[in-house]
Amino acid sequence: MFWLLLYLSLKSIDCGTAPPQFCSSDTRPLGDAINEFALNLYQQMLSDLTDPVNDNIFFSPFSISTALAMTYLGTAGNTATEMKDVLKYPACVHPLFKALLTALNVPNNDYTLNAANNLFPDDGFMIEQEYRNNVIQFYFATLKELDFENNSTVAREYINEWVSNHTEEKIPELLQEGDVTALTVLFLVNAIYFKGDWLNKFNPDLTEPATFHVSPSNQIQVEMMYNQSTYRYYEDNTLNAQLLELPYAGEDISMIVILPNDLDGLSSLEATLNPINLKAALNELLYPRSSTHTSVQVWLPKFEMKLRYKLKEYLQALGMVDAFNFGADFSPLCGSCGVFISAVIHEAFVKVNEEGTEATASTGVVINRGIKLFKANHPFIFLIRHKKSGTILFMGRVTTPNDSGTSNQSCLTKIPCPKKRKGKLSRCCGCKYMFADPKTKRIMTPKAMMRKYKGRKCLEGCIHRKCIP
Ligand SMILES: *[C@@H]1O[C@H](CO)[C@@H](O)[C@H](O)[C@H]1NC(C)=O
Ligand SMILES: *[C@@H]1O[C@H](CO)[C@@H](O)[C@H](O)[C@H]1NC(C)=O
Ligand SMILES: *[C@@H]1O[C@H](CO)[C@@H](O)[C@H](O)[C@H]1NC(C)=O
Ligand SMILES: *[C@@H]1O[C@H](CO)[C@@H](O)[C@H](O)[C@H]1NC(C)=O
Ligand SMILES: *[C@@H]1O[C@H](CO)[C@@H](O)[C@H](O)[C@H]1NC(C)=O
Ligand SMILES: *[C@@H]1O[C@H](CO)[C@@H](O)[C@H](O)[C@H]1NC(C)=O
Fold this sequence. Notes:
- By secondary structure, the chain is of the alpha+beta class.
- It is built from eleven helices and 19 strands.
- It has two domains: about 1-370, Antithrombin, subunit I, domain 2 (Antithrombin, Chain I, domain 2, 2-Layer Sandwich); about 380-465, no CATH class.
- The strands form five sheets. Strands 1, 5, 6, 7, 8 and 9 form a six-stranded antiparallel sheet that branches. It has a six-stranded mixed sheet with strand order 3-2-4-12-11-10, with helices on both faces.
- Helix 2 (about 60-70) packs antiparallel against helix 3.
- The two termini are about 55 Å apart.
- One 2-acetamido-2-deoxy-beta-D-glucopyranose binds near residues 200 and 202.
């Protein structure tokens, strides 16, 4: 069991950009929203642990919330309402994300912190122009078209390379086989990378093997770091825990460790912790009314872990249901396109040692089309069957389709679908086979063509049009 609750707190965020009118650039409401969602998600992860005593948890609430906010931007109706409720998004959420992303990405000499967003649409997927503009404006996302439909393996490898590039190779395979398919129309992704040295580094000479009480009956040996210095420190009665702030150089970012008073106190801490008492405890720790720093002897184990989550079921349990169903309302993203979220994938890595901390995470949202694709563009078997008796009347395989007996490729003149009918655009559906009269170039139905040319020359001007829904 992991007795530390890690919390990367962001202090004093500098809001660099002026968001649109009527939106304040104070990013704290967004911080509160992400934190509340974080605790709810933590509870979901907790209830799903294979081994509740021994299993660790590590994830990036910021990364998950950002990737889902870009998705939320493309939703409407009940789909949007549910996402807003589960993710606790405040008013002006998109301008606030812009302000937060701007603040996080300000270059500095003390530590490395980068957050990047990207969209990978299938090259045949039409994204509404307004959505495209907004996701670029608010999330600094770039769009890169990939060909999921033709070869999703190539697309997957490209995305994994992008994520790997933005996580210092710590997350080389966010997408495993089958996570994206030929049905994928859009992949939205966030990646965050942080590397910082402790303001007070631990002296490696003082690191020693020590006992760690996983549970009252299970003790293991770990590499325990040690230092004595002055820190922000607070004892919280509600949480029955000690809180300690370990700042990183630059003092914009710090780790907060919440250590239960009792050796086996983690589960009662987890049961008690909520957004209100966490915020209260952090306020007491970081903005105390009286004394500020306390002299503390600190023992902290070195650790490193990487965890991967599929978040769909957790998000559904929290109330985000519609977005995962056929019939989700993604009209701002792509009109009436019948798409839905098929998966939300998260992976996070953290390494803590005497020098400092390296932490990185990536979240991907897979959007698939609701229509199944059946593309017989490779050899297949076919049967012609009498339904009532079940008898196979004919059977065959097609390896080299050959319709030269009935048509002539060079006659396949491209003719646009009939466009106007009483001022209305008529759909192409239904004009499966249309024929252009070789003499007049007029479009004719197969029947009219057969009548006119008695079936003989009909095929000379035949065009085969795909049904475009
Ligand atoms: C499919 O992708 C391969 C490379 O992965 C390419 O050579 C081929 O032309 C593509 N086919 C289509 C129909 O786009
Ligand atoms: C996809 O592309 C990869 C690499 O170019 C190739 O190995 C694989 O056979 C292709 N798969 C399909 C279904 O075309
Ligand atoms: C990853 O980084 C390498 C090296 O900078 C670059 O050549 C490559 O294009 C990047 N790949 C992606 C998908 O961004
Ligand atoms: C502990 O932190 C203090 C304060 O920065 C530092 O001066 C000291 O060198 C550290 N001690 C050890 C043992 O690393
Ligand atoms: C296609 O069918 C035509 C007519 O039946 C025949 O003459 C031709 O040899 C066939 N071509 C192939 C590649 O099978
Ligand atoms: C197919 O069309 C071309 C060009 O119109 C013509 O030269 C050729 O004879 C035609 N072939 C058949 C089999 O009709």
